[in-house]
Design goal:
31% strand, alpha/beta, globular, 16 strands, seven-stranded mixed beta sheet, 5 helices, single chain, Purple Acid Phosphatase, chain A, domain 2
Length: 226
């Protein structure tokens, strides 16, 4: 038996696995009690300030962790997979304030927690959990960047977003891209931008029948913009 997740989401199946794209931007695999998030970019405001960029309100990590804690409280996930770029760079992980580090450790308690390596955080970070280049968990494979033809691949990296026309008003949101082979997940972090779904690199990765599932209070599925 597995816990029934009561969160808003879009239900779909890939490679025989029944999944739910949540309104928050997380992905839920109920059979495995597994929650997936991608591109948290924790510590981004610290990294930008450290490199002499704009001074942003330093609350992005706390906001991201607050939303993640809410998803975990509702799903009761036994496993969490973070699909890379969980930290904005390796120094951001080292610079985490102690209260935020302890918060992450509390979220990890009693769960399997996997950090997939990304291009922003290519090496292990000292924040608990297991660190892997990718995670095969049949029939799915979890990695940071999509790799050519694949079946059951769950990845992130591109921060896809899509737009809809709602009664004459254009609404743009972070979005899941989903076809019969793969899912490219939206960025979950607070200070993350996005790449439009119609960008050629995304069009080349996704099948013609691909859809975009826009995040937000009520997930909206539309044909993937081309």
């Amino acid at each position: 038996m597995f816990h029934v997740c009561r969160m808003n989401g879009y239900d779909f199946t890939i490679a025989g696995a029944a999944l739910k794209a949540l309104s928050s931007g997380a992905l839920w695999w109920p059979q495995e009690s597994l929650l997936v998030v991608s591109d948290l970019h924790l510590g981004k405001s610290e990294r930008i300030a450290r490199r002499g960029g704009a001074s942003l309100p330093p609350y992005d990590t706390r906001d991201t962790l607050t939303r993640l804690a809410a998803d975990l409280a509702l799903s009761h996930a036994r496993t969490v997979v973070c699909l890379g770029d969980s930290f904005d760079d390796l120094m951001s992980a080292d610079a985490l304030p102690e209260d935020e580090r302890q918060w992450i450790l509390r979220l990890q308690a009693g769960r399997r927690w996997v950090w997939i390596e990304g291009n922003h955080d290519p090496g292990p970070v000292d924040v608990g959990g297991t660190h892997l280049a990718e995670l095969p968990l049949a029939p799915l494979t979890f990695r940071h960047i999509a790799q050519g033809p694949a079946s059951g691949e769950i990845s992130g990296h591109y921060h896809p977003k899509a737009s809809i026309n709602a009664r004459g008003r254009i609404i743009t949101r972070a979005a899941f891209l989903i076809d019969s082979d793969r899912v490219i997940m939206p960025a979950y972090g607070t200070y993350t931008g996005g790449l439009r779904a119609q960008t050629p690199v995304l069009g080349a990765l996704m099948r013609d029948e691909a859809i975009a599932v826009l995040t937000g209070p009520v997930p909206v599925a539309v044909p993937m913009p081309r």
